[in-house]
Amino acid sequence: MEYARLPHVDVEVLEKNEGQMSPPTKPMGGSSPYLLKVLLKRTSDGRQDQFILASESQIDRARWVTALSQHKQTKNNINKEDLSQYEVTKAYMPKEPDELGLQQADVVIVMQKEDGWYFGERLRDGQSGWFPAGCASEITNRVAVEQNVRRMERLRKETNV
Questions:
Q1: What is the pLDDT of residues 72-113, one digit of tens each?
Q2: Which strands, in side-by-side order, build the sheet including 107-114?
Q3: Cβ 69 vs Cβ 123: under 8 Å
Q4: Within 10 Å of residue 26's Cβ, how many Cβ atoms?
Q5: Are 50 and 37 in contact (CB under 8 A)?
Q6: Whole-angstrom distance, CA of residue 7 vs CA of residue 145
Q7: By C-alpha distance, which of 133, 137, 124, 132 is closest to 89?
Q8: Consecutive H or E run containing 131
Q9: Tell me, what's the pLDDT at 23?
Q10: Rounded mean pLDDT of the chain?
């Protein structure tokens, strides 16, 4: 099996019929409607390769896409004031390594919503991960959102996070 380092991997969400129209790809997985295409731009032996993977659910596919492309997202280029903020109303203990543990009253910037789950960054320490949507409610007051962003920047500068 070929492999590539993450900087040489691209991932794309496919609709079920798109995966069937790509003869050069190697289908892997079952007949699930949740497909993603993985492109290895430079494999271990210097070639290009691509294949299609199938996941059992929409959230599983979203988690794979996030995991394979997170290294390309630069947090500093994102204007945090433009993203939705959520206040945690119910604590959450992570059950998987890509999940975000939450304490009541935490504030999280949500970057992606998928099938009852959110992917976000906790303001107090910059940790990111998936968490159930039912654990938080959106902060709709723009003044509070702006204050949270300023507080986050100040705290991170003071604590070197």
A1: 765 555 667 788 999 999 999 999 999 999 999 999 999 999
A2: 128-132, 117-122, 107-114, 84-88, 136-139
A3: no
A4: 11
A5: yes
A6: 33
A7: 137
A8: strand 128-132
A9: 43
A10: 85
